[in-house]
């Protein structure tokens, strides 16, 4: 009969509230019908009970309650019992309009209008019959309109609540997609930084081991280059972490790499044992910094794959062309000394080639990778600078 509210305060159920309302209405209508009750107390009390207490179930089944009360009112009319308790039909009509659709509301209104017409014809035809019919019809119309407005307001509030829930859900989904995209971007950056520098360091360390017995000075130079590469990797990591953390000061001192840093990248790869030729055409300054970072990462990943998969004696060539509309780049190796086509990076790397395609797609561009007709491997990409970067 009672339940806890939002603040833990016990509240009565709607059925109990309606039951109390019906009881209070019964006593009020009985009090104003003292004189008719003295003339025919039994039948009038039965009519009062039959037309008031069904209102306790009006919110459970409004149509059934209205139909029952209309039937009782028709029996009352047939028995020629005139009593003000018929006003309860207005409450039943209001409940139908507030709870059910327009079609059933109109049907209930028509039934009540028919009852008003019958009551007017029997009891008020010669006593201001038209005025009585008009006033009772106005009350019935007001009850139906008020209930319909309440129902419309509830539906509107339910729509707004549903919309708020949907927008909140969409906001959470967008946040999750943004987090997933940021994780993918971080994974690509970490893959490029770690894989390239570790590949260079492994190649230098292997070269130092082989050169140690015959050329110690070359082994020493290789190990120094290992230290340089390692420090560069640490710097790149700190710079990348500084982008993620606002309290990292290195992010301000070390800008993101771009096309101008490709020369240092090529030199680093040469020191690791892969002869690399770099050719940059156009003016890199017209290319946005984010696009330059993408171009740098694509070249870096392609050269890393070449170092990992190309045979000994292979040579690499990097070509970059810059315009205000696009950046085209090509990284190819001749595969010298290979008895067969080297394996595709996508077959031996977990994220390299797919990450490169994602980077190119962020600028509405394209990336292709595959074996060259004369041997070796080629990676080509186009970045469209007129297409906004996908975040």
Characterize the structure shown:
63% of the residues lie in helices and 11% in strands. The chain is rod-shaped, with a radius of gyration of 43 Å. It is of the alpha+beta class and 391 residues long. α4 packs antiparallel against α5, α5 runs parallel beside α7 and α11 runs antiparallel to α13.
Tally of alpha and pi helices = 13
Helix content: 55-70%
Give a quick account of the main beta sheet: strands, pairing sense, barrel closure: 5 strands, mixed
- Strand arrangement within the widest β-sheet reads 3-4-5-7-6
Instruction: Give the strand content.
Output: 5-15%
Topology of this structure?
Elements: E1 2-4, E2 10-12, H1 14-31, H2 34-39, H3 41-52, H4 62-78, H5 88-99, H6 102-123, H7 129-211, H8 216-244, H9 250-253, H10 262-271, E3 276-282, H11 289-309, E4 316-322, E5 326-333, H12 345-348, H13 352-361, E6 366-371, E7 377-384
Parallel strand pairs: 3-4
Antiparallel strand pairs: 1-2, 4-5, 5-7, 6-7
Helix pairs in contact: 1-3, 4-5, 4-6, 5-6, 5-7, 6-7, 7-8, 7-11, 11-13
Keyword list:
5-stranded mixed β-sheet, 13 helices, 63% helix, two-stranded antiparallel sheet, 391 residues, alpha+beta
Summed up:
The protein is an alpha+beta fold. The protein has helices at 14-31, 34-39, 41-52, 62-78, 88-99, 102-123, 129-211, 216-244, 250-253, 262-271, 289-309, 345-348, 352-361, and strands spanning 2-4, 10-12, 276-282, 316-322, 326-333, 366-371, 377-384.
């Amino acid at each position: 009969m009672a339940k806890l509210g939002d603040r833990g305060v016990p509240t009565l159920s709607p059925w109990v509230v309606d039951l109390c309302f019906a009881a209070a209405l019964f006593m009020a209508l009985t009090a104003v019908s003292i004189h008719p009750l003295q003339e025919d107390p039994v039948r009038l009390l039965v009519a009062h009970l039959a037309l008031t207490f069904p209102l306790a179930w009006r919110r459970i089944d409004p149509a059934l309650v209205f139909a029952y009360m209309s039937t009782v009112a028709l029996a009352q009319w047939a028995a020629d019992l005139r009593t003000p308790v018929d006003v309860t039909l207005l409450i039943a009509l209001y409940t139908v309009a507030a709870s059910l659709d327009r079609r059933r509301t109109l049907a209930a209104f028509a039934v009540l209008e028919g009852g008003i017409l019958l009551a007017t014809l029997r009891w008020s035809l010669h006593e201001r019959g038209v005025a009585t019919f008009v006033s009772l019809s106005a009350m019935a119309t007001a009850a139906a309109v008020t209930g319909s407005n309440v129902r419309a307001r509830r539906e509107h509030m339910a729509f707004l609540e549903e919309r708020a829930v949907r927008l909140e859900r969409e906001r959470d989904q967008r946040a999750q997609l943004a987090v997933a995209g940021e994780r993918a971007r971080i994974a690509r950056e970490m893959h490029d930084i770690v894989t390239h520098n570790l590949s260079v360091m492994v190649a230098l360390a292997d070269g130092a081991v082989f050169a140690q017995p015959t050329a110690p000075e070359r082994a020493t130079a290789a190990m120094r280059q290992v230290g340089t590469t390692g420090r560069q990797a640490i710097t790149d990591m700190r710079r990348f972490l500084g982008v993620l953390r606002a309290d990292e000061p290195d992010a301000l001192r070390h800008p993101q790499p771009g096309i101008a840093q490709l020369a240092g990248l090529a030199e680093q790869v040469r020191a690791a044992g892969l002869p690399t030729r770099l050719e940059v055409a156009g003016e890199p300054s017209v290319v946005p910094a984010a696009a330059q970072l993408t171009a740098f990462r694509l070249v870096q990943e392609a050269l890393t794959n070449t170092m990992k998969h190309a045979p000994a004696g292979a040579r690499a060539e990097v070509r970059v062309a810059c315009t205000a509309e696009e950046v085209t780049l090509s990284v190819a190796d001749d595969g010298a000394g290979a008895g067969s086509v080297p394996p595709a990076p996508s077959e031996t790397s977990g994220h390299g080639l797919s990450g490169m395609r994602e980077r190119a797609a962020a600028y509405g561009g394209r990336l292709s990778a595959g074996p060259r007709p004369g041997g070796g491997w080629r990676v080509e990409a186009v970045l469209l600078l007129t297409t906004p970067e996908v975040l």
